Amino acid sequence: MAENRADHRMNRLLAALVPEDLAALKAHLEVVNLTRGQVLYEPGDTLRFSYFPHDAVISLVNVMEDGGTVEMAVFGREGVCGLLAELATREAFGRYVVQLSGSASRIAFERLNEVRNARPAIRWLIMNYSQAMLMHTFQNVSCNAVHPVEARCCRWILTMHDRAGQDTLLLTHEFLAEMLGVQRSSVSIVTRTLQTAGLIQQARGSITVTDRAGLEEVACECYGKIRRMYERLLPGTYTQTQSI
């Protein structure tokens, strides 16, 4: 693979570090390209690397016995994927799949753990991110249980918009349905409604956000609650995308 010269500071957690702390991590970081649909880990695999996404987005999905999936967590430029390797077994309890192509800074978990233990600021940042991620996951569980598909779909699109940093999101109705744990036909109905309202523009394999403020009005309360929680625990690392 040709050398990838993307800046590690494209990830907001890494960008929040002072130069000395970033340098301690940088010695072990490798920039990798991730492709939509690429599976990083399957359930039961040993987690070996943590990924700090730049413009890629990675989902952790639960795989059911019938092959169905539902998203449990999502990782973008605001955070890091693979921290669960610190658990005793280092076993992936879901599928880690790339949902938006892009680059990421990758580090072997052993090296991340060594630097974290030696650098209090890095340890604090990762602890706060882990807390935010856990609260985000809990909120997703509640959201999936009580909120209608349209509101959840808007919340999910906004979440991707924040993490991808671009208006056009390359994804299909089928993939969106898998992330939400609903039928593809339900997603098609919702996205058609959102397009008619002028909130998004659909094309084959993509959705473009055209009215972010309008999406926020339709989205359930979970989006705002999750965003505020990240901003409280990680000030300056979860900058809200400006409304279009």
From TrEMBL:
Q: Which GO molecular function annotation, any one, does this entry have?
A: DNA-binding transcription factor activity
Sorted alphabetically, which Pfam families does this protein's record hold?
HTH_Crp_2 (PF13545)
Leader sequence range is none
Residue limits of the HTH crp-type domain? 147-213
* Xref: CDD domains: CAP_ED (cd00038)
Q: One GO cellular component term, please give it.
A: cytosol
Q: Which UniProt keywords apply?
A: DNA-binding, Transcription, Transcription regulation
Task: Note the InterPro entries from the entry.
Answer: cNMP-bd_dom, cNMP-bd_dom_sf, Env_Response_Regulators, HTH_CRP, RmlC-like_jellyroll, WH_DNA-bd_sf
Return the protein name: cAMP-binding protein
Q: Which organism is it from?
A: Microvirga lotononidis
